[in-house]
Predict the 3D structure of the following.
Amino acid sequence: MPPVFAHGALRLYLLALLEEGPKHGYDVIRDLSGRFGGTYSPSAGTVYPRLAKLEEEGLVATTTDGRRTIYSLTDAGLAELESRRGELQEVEHDISASVRRLADELRGDIRANMKGLRADLAATAEAARGASRRMPDSGSQSPANHRLLKETEMMLQSFRDDLQVELRAHAGRQQLTELTVETVRTVLDQAQIAIRATLKR
C-alpha cells in the first residue's frame, strides 16, 4: 500500500493540528486518526519522534500535566505554518485521496470476508436441512420451531440494541463521518444478503 503521508507531510500536518490548541500526544494521535475516519491510525512510534523533532527545532513547546506531556505550537511553529499554507492545502487534498483509497480497500476486504461468511452460512444451512430431513416432521408450528423462532428474533434484537449503543458511544466521542456510515451500510447490506440467502434455502 502506498504511504499515507508523503515525505515531510506528517510533520506539517502535526503543526496544523497543534494550531487548534495544546494537545496530549494521545490527543494528537486520536485527532489524526479522526481526520481519516478511522481508516488510518498512526502509531505512537510514528507520531512521538516527529513531535520530539519539532520541539528540537523550536516549532513545538512541551509542558507536563502529571505524567503526560502537552504539546503546543510556538510562535516559530505558527510562522512556519503560515508560510506553508499552500503546502498544507495539498496535504489536505492528499489526505482526502488517501481516505478514499483506504475506504475502497476496506470495502474490498469487507466484501471478501462477507463472501466467505455467506459460504459458511450456506454450508451450515445445508447441514441443518440435512439434519431436519432426518428428524420426524412435527409441523412448522411445533413448540421447538416456535422456541427457535423466538430465540432468533431475540438474537436479532440484541444485535441491533448492542450496535445502537456502540454507535451512540462513538458519536459521543467523535464526529461521525461519511466513511463510517458507508462502511456500516456496506457491512449491514452484505450481512442481510447472507441471511436472506440462508432463509430462502
Observations:
- The chain has two domains: 9-90, 104-200.
